[in-house]
Every structure is written in C-alpha cells, then in structure tokens.
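Q: Entry one of two.
A:
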Amino acid sequence: MRGHIRKRGAGYQIVVDVGRDPLTGKRKQKSVGGFKTKKEAEKALAELIAKIEQGEYVEYKNSTLKDFLLKWLENKKPLLKPTTYIFYEKIVNNILIPGLGSTELSKLKPIHIQSFISKLYEREDINSTTIKHYYTTLKTALNQAVKWQLIPSNPCEAVEPPKREKKKMQVLTPEQVNLLLDYAHNSQEVMHIPLLLALTCGLRRGEIIALKWSNVNLEKGHIIISESAAIRKNGKNIILDTKTDAGERIVELPSFVIPILKQHRKKQLENKLLFGSEYKDTNLVCSWPNGEELKPDYITHAFKKLLRKLELPDIRFHDLRHTHATLLLLQGVNPKIVSERLGHASIDITLDIYSHVLPTMQKEAAEKLNDLFLKKA
C-alpha cells in the first residue's frame, strides 16, 4: 500500500491507494484532510496504511447497493441450481433494487431496511412469508458483503426481522367439496383436475402444475410427486425439485379418481389429434386443451372465480390441501399417514398445523375406549 502527504491551504492532506474497487476493477484512493501539521498527517497516514494492510479498513464509497447485489448475483450463479438462481434474481431485480438499490452500500443503515420492510407490509399483494424471503435474501447478500470486506457489519442484524403470520386455516365441508367438484366436472372446466388432485391427494398448486403422466400409474393407483412449478421466467414455468426428501413421495389415489383421470387422459389424446401440429405435447396432467401449461396465477384467479360463482367461502387454493388433511384426520386416519401424503418433513409439522382437529379425535378415542371397557364390565 502506498500513500503520500500533500499541502492543502494552511494544512495537510493524506492520500492512500486502497486497492481496486471489487465491482469496477478500477484503482481507488482515499484522501483525508484537515491536519494542521505535517506530523499529524504522517501519523494518520501510518495508521490508515496499517489498517488497510491488516484488513481492518473498509471503503466502498459511492458504490450503490444495486451495484453490489448485481455483483453478488453474478458470483452466486455458478454455485446455485438454475431454479434457485432465478428465485434470487427475481427478488433482487423486482424487489430489492427498486426499493433500496440507489442507496450507497457504505451508507445503508438498519433504519433504511426497517422502513423498506414496513412499506412491504402495506402492500396487499405480498404476504408475511414472502416478505420474510425478501429480508432473508438481503441479509444473505449483505453477509457476503461483510466477508468481502466491503462493509464492516451487516445492517440487517439490527433490524427486527419479519415474522410469519400464522394464517387462519379455512376448510370446506364434504358438501361444499362435492358441490365444487361436480360443478367443475359438469361445466368441463380446465380447473376440474387441479381441484380433484388438491382435494383428494393434498397436492400443492405447484405440484399439480408440474405433474406429468410419466409420474402417474393408473394401474397401481398412485402418483409420484417429485417436482413443483411456482416460478415463471420468460413466459414459462420453471420446474423445481421438491424442497425436501419427504416432499418427493408416492400418493395413493382414491379409487373413484382413477376412472376420472383415465377419461381425462383419453380426452387429452383426442385433443392432440384435433390440434395436430399446433398441439403442445408437454405430457402434463393439467393443461389447456392445446396442451399448453397452466400458469400458477391462473389457478389462483380461476379458483376465486369459482368460489364466487358457487357462493362458497372465500378461501385460498392452498386451503384445499388443508381440507384434504382435515377430512382425513376427522375420518380417523393416522396423522403419520396424513403427514406422508402431504409430504411434510416430519409428523410434528402435521400435528402443529392441524392441532385444531386433535381435540375432536381425542374425544372420539375416549368414547371408543369407553365402549370397549363397558363391554367388559
């Protein structure tokens, strides 16, 4: 490291070469003035050079958070799965850069991040879980900035992290389930099979959209869940592997569902002949008549429209999965089996989510014991 002292007016200024900017590659200099004597300047110069050489000095002046985040993405890309990179890229470009990108990295303070998070909570199109993802991504990126010695500490550490709000679960009754499925079937809705798979197999929206016929065994009566589609890029669904080993699972089909799926497959093959060269042979179980994939947002909006038309409770599509689990538990199915069908990492997750059902099950268990011992008395 080199530095020098120069006379400035009545005082002195020190100038030090602090190395290259890690983003631009250009050499950078640090200048500090206001020293009354040359001796004071010499002392300050020696201390600054020592800090730089010992890695205790951090200087990242004028570079913005946007500059850093783009560099961070560039370095992360070869280390991540393509789908994970796309996930980060969308958060950085669509949320973090528009919200905080113009702030100089060296001047980014906890209050900036806290205000940014507060504004996100004001948006109706973003839930607490999503905000948590945004915060975690920013914190992860800034941890790297600390490791690269671009900033001395991570401002996210002093921010109150977003808390996931436990959503109130809403489920449909068996009567409402039948009404919904009957209407979708009779009106030849594209939504019929997605609804059927969510209600009878407990599949997530992304799992339904990604399900292919190669993972459906109608002879043995089961489906294999190994992929999910929840992210879109360049007008296409991005297929992800299931998040956990438990997420990759075999789900047994109720017997009444098998002939419905057989008929649905037959109709798809007829459409393939009808559309000819215009048919998109995606091998997807759920698609448009021309074989084109369904968008995640379409599932959500079409479901809401169906609920309004049938005057059913305003629930989320994900609540159909909860309906599936709740009805099974109320029928006395072992929670371990329900957990396996849902693809939960452990039965504890299932018991926590569906704890509201357990008191009813406890009562029924007690009554069965009562009947058993009364017969012996």
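Q: Entry two of two.
A:
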Amino acid sequence: MKIRENLLQMFKQAKGEFLSGEEISRRLGVSRTAVWKHIEELREEGYVFEAVRRSGYRLMSTPDVMIAEEIKAGLNTRVFGSEVHYYPTIDSTQNKCQELAKAGAPEGTLVVADQQVGGKGRLGRVWHSPPGTNISMSLLLRPTLELQKCPQITLLAAVAIVETLRDFCAIDAQIKWPNDILIDGKKVCGILTELNAESDRIHYLIIGMGLNVNTTAEQFPEDVREVATSLYIAKGEPLRRVPIIQQILYRLEKLYDVYLEDGFAPVKERWERCAITIGKKVTIRTLQGSFTGYAEGIDDSGVLLVRREDGSITKVYSADVEIHA
C-alpha cells in the first residue's frame, strides 16, 4: 500500500503534468510493469489517467473515494491519520476502532467507511448514512489525561469540525452542547466519544464523527428530514470528502496539541465563539427528569451551566438539550 500512497502523492504534486514511466519506476524503486499494474488498479477505482507514448502518464481526475492512500496523500499532520483503515461497508467505525485499539494500534489511527450499516450515535441512537455521500470516521487517541477531563475531548472535536466548515467549506456552522453541529438549526454532524479506562488511567479514547456531506433531502428518512441537513443542502453543490477529512484531522491535531500543552482554557474560548447554545432558553432532558432555563455557558471543565427561573445555576453533565425558538 505504501507504493500506491507514494504514487498518488507523486501525481498530485505533478499538478496535471506528465510523469514518465521511467521516472515513476525510479522514484518508487519498482519495475515499469509494477507501475502500470498500480495505475490500472487505480483506474478500476475511478481514477482517470491519460497515457501518452514518450510522455508517460498524467492524472486527469480523482473520484470521491476515501481510500487510505487518497487520505494520506497530502495529509499535513504529524500523528493523526498516520495509519488509515478504509472500508466500503462496515457495521460501525467505532466498533472497528475499538478492535484496533485493543490490538495495540497507535494513537492517530483512523477508521473510515463509505457506508455504515450499524452506525451509532449518542444514547444508543442509530446514525443514518447512505453509501457514497457522507463521512463516517473514528479516531483513536491515547492521551495521558485525568478521567474527569475526557468529555472535554468531545468539545475540542466539535470546535475543529465547526472551524473546518466555516473556514474551509465557507458554511456557517454552530455547536449545540455537547456534541451536535448545526447548520440553520438542523443537525449536520454528530460526535460520539467512547472511553476505555481503569480507575487511575486511560487506555484509549475514540472520537466517532458522522458528517452529512452530500446527502440530498430525499435521502434522509422521513422522520429526520425536518431536523437533519447536509453540506450539499447548505451550499447547493456537492463537496469532495477527502479534503474535508484532511482539514478536520489537521485542525483537530493542532487543537489537541494545544489542549495537552495549555489545558482547556484556549479550547473553551474557541468553543464559545462557535456555540449556538449560550444565552438561549433551553429545555434540559435527563434520566432524572426535565427542566427549563437559560444556558449561561460552560465552566472550566466543559460542563453546561443553566440558570433556572429562581436564579439558581444547575450544572449539566449529560443531557439532551432543546433550544427554544
């Protein structure tokens, strides 16, 4: 796989110019027959190459596929995405990432699927993701961190995703505490963080991210059409998924490094700039019951602060949050 990864990297760096079979062979350290074989395999996956005698090959177009080589080609990260596992169809990227973590996979391992048939969201909900449209991925982390601080990772991931959508995709997205990304009040992305730990240390932490990219309104089940959206619906045009994955990983790694070095304060500041919840009247639903109040913000640990009608402040650690119009 390393050969194909380097081959794609070469063609992307060539920016549409021809590369001779001899040059490719020399730089990759393989025979020209092997070069031809790898190019034919890429053609079968949807890549379009032009081949001209005495000039060589040039890459004409790239399919919207999330194979490992495509993600890693041009990925500007230090650790995140250094190991990528791609599956056309899978039950859940979270489940697969759990398997890899238990087998000793390194921090930064990414599991990506074109289609999930058993995708899961928060509180055991099903995450709907038709084939060929969305991003379903799970990232493995192995932080040296106190257990009580782990929920902050979810808020950190939300910031990285929203900043990617705002800066890279030019879409105004916002965070609804704790783990929903909204566009025009509708959910476009969910984040699920799962933990494996003992009382005194974390073995690993997995961030699952499900982002609706090119789903049309008709592709959503009827029961979620009024509350779900996609980047395609927001922009009115399809977007390529791999560059979005690369941007999320890049921004997530940079923010993660800042967090490990400087703590939650800089993450909190950026989260508040992205949040839709703060200052809004909300209904909080927990297993213990429901109440209504105003979201004041989050505290220094990431807990939601809600002011009730009597003026008291309630700390909300886990709940469904409904924002009133």
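A: Comment on entry two: The chain has a mean pLDDT of 93. The radius of gyration is 22 Å.
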